Structures are given as C-alpha cells and as structure tokens.
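sorry to bug you again but im stuck and you know this stuff better than me. what follows is a protein written twice so to speak, once as letters and once as structure tokens for the fold. mainly i need to know what kind of three dimensional shape the backbone takes. anything you notice is useful, everything is just below:
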Amino acid sequence: MASLGLAAPALADGWLPHAKGATWVYRWKDSVYNPTPTKEKVTVKTTKGSAFTLAWTTDGQNNPAAAPTSTGTVSFAETPNGLANTNWTSNAPPTGYPILCASTSQCGNSLASTYYNVIWGSRAPLLAEPLLRGRTWASTGGTQNDVGSSSRYVGTELVSVPAFDRPVEAAKVQSTITQAGALGDPYGSGVRTTWWVYGVGPVKVTFAHAGGSKAAVTTAVLLQTNQKPQAPPPDADYFPLVKGQTLSYRWTNTRYLKSPVVEKFVVDAAALGSARFTVASVSGPIKVAGAYGYTSTSAGLANIWGTVKAASIAKLPKLGPASLPAKKRRHFFTPFDLMNFGLEPILPAYPTAGTSWAGRASGIAYSVFGVTGTTRVLGLRTVTVPAGTFRALAVRSTLVQKGFPFGSGTRTAWFAPGRGLVKLVFQHGDGSVSDVELLK
C-alpha cells in the first residue's frame, strides 16, 4: 500500500478529540419531559489505541433541584469508515420519561443526556468518513439494534454556542430516525440535527421527536470546553460513489489507438462509502464489458476489485510485473485501468495541494502492479473537455514498472467535484501518449 507523505488523512479523532484532560460542559433540556436546563460535564475516561471512552456527570454542576441526576459513559472507536459508537452505560432515565423498549423490564435505552441524543440510532458509523459533500449513510442503534437512521451531511455553516465568543464553522449532519414497537414510541423517532466542530466534537444537537404538534424537542448546546475549534478538512467529493452516476469517456493513444475508444461507465450500486461501476463499449477497436469496485475511507479512494472481459484489434504493449505469469498481469482496456494503475490510494481522503505519497516495493499494490514511484496533488486547475470546463483537482504520478516502458511514465489525472475523473494524460515510457477525456 502507499504511504502518505506531506499530509496524513484526517482521522475520527479530529471530529471528536479525546486526549487526556479534554473536557466539555453541555446544557440540555427537553421541551416536555425535562424543561429544566441540565448541565453535564464530559471528560475522557480511557483511551487505548483507536478506542476511547467518555464519561459524563451532573455532579458539581450547580443544577436546579428539578434537574435530573445523570452519570454515564459512552465508548467509541475510530474505524476506516468513521467514528463508531461501541457501548454505553448510565443510570436509569428520570421517572416519567418515555420508555424506549418494548417492555419496562431491563430496558437499556435512554435519551436523557446529551450524548444519548448524539448516538441514538447511529452507532456504526455515527459520523462517516471521509465527510464529503453529498455523503449519506445508514446506521442502526438501540440495545436491540431496533432503531434505524438515515444520515446526510448537509455541509458546513457558522453556528453560535455559549462555549465560544464568536460563531464557529461546523459540519451539519441531519438524521431521520425511526423506532417502532417501543412503549414510548414515537418519542424514539424524529429528525436529529448535529453540528460537529473539527477539533472540538458535537457543539449543538436538536432532536425534533415525532408525535405531531405537541411533540417534544430536545436541545443540547456546548457551554464550555478546553478544546480549540479548527477549520474542517475540505469536503469536495472528487470521485462520487453515487448510484445512477453516468460517465462516457473517449480514449486515444498516439501510437496504438488511431481510432478512439469510447466507453460508458454507470454506478449501478452504492452503499456504505463503496460503489460498483459497470463499463460497456460504445465504439472503437476495443470491445469491453465489466465492472469495478471502489471504496472511500479515511485512508483515501481505492479500487478494491475489477473484472473485465475484452476483445481488441488494437495491439497494446504488454504490462508487468515480470514476477507474475502473463495470464495474471493487468491490461489497459478502459480509462479506469489507466487511473487505477500503480500506486494507492488513487486520492487521499481529504486531498489538498502539496499532499504526496510514495509507492513501496512491497505490499498488495506492488504485488499486483510491480510499480514504484510517487504521486503528488498539484492543486486546482482549469481544464476543458467535451463535457465542459471544470475547476478540477490535478494529481500527477511518476510511475516505474521495471522492464515495461508502457507501464512506466508520467500520468496526470484531473478530478472535478461532483463528477469524478474528467481528464487523464499518461505519457508512457515508450514515447506514446494516452489521452482520456470525459464526453458527457
């Protein structure tokens, strides 16, 4: 696998820091069941590797006598797909609170705290990564995993909370939550909006519970913290994994493809940050049908599988590596073959100008391609192709496939937000040049 050089991918700890000594104080209330504003102090209880546990308490917060007493813990893990909630414990919710189970006996569900409102129905992932424009995800929660949620990253906006003396930029996530069969139903269903500040964590939560005009609304805001707000990572999606996306490309090579190859790609399945693209020939000397799988995680965008059947009257040079038998070597049949070739990731999770990574002479990518070299994000460039003019992210790779000039050279790819690959130029080591352009 490739290793990032100048900048590593942002991890879940940016969205929910958990260094020893980190503290937060929240104030929450429910318009029907807890109208008394209640303060809770949150601290870091334990941290081990990628797992950590936060603890909260109302003790010592000078709450009014009518405020409920609450203590508890909530546990998380940083995963390649984002932040996941792994466990929780607390005292029982106040008497008279809606029962969020099918029976009163041993009910482990509650919404009587700030963090219970944050994690409700959204355990894995709680917050998906990379958090890119248009990202949606589904999750479940509750003791019996009987609470479902559909979450959507809305974008960033300025939000004002008492913890800071000025508005801070927050990532806004809206979740539609559904629970059926609980005694307190429909209190467990509704629409939750959470504002996440990078470097701090959740700073505001509103949960509009289902139930008509008299339905309850829970609100929590951050009163104080010793954590410092940071600018969120860039959220442009340069390779959308969205079902229904259609892309048509024209591919030429100055020496081997005198007639253009035109191929059409369609995303026919997408879920949990992964997608399947099918490819079919439109015209040209290469006839192809197949599919590719991609995934987008905190490690970046990667091609995880591909299966292509092709017949070609164009004679393209052989590719390596020499260590593999000829029948197991990759071939260039489509623009995505040119894009996937060589080093991983194709793009880092949050690409910015200057980010670079190098291929190693070991690992999965090397065993498949036998390619060494480096890739660097050049930054945004204006590029014009038949599909239009785009402000696209330019990414340049220098590739060396020992003993195979056609698998060596310099590749520059341009990725447009919301569209994906729009242009690719591969200057091969044998002097030929492959040129790919998005037609529509």
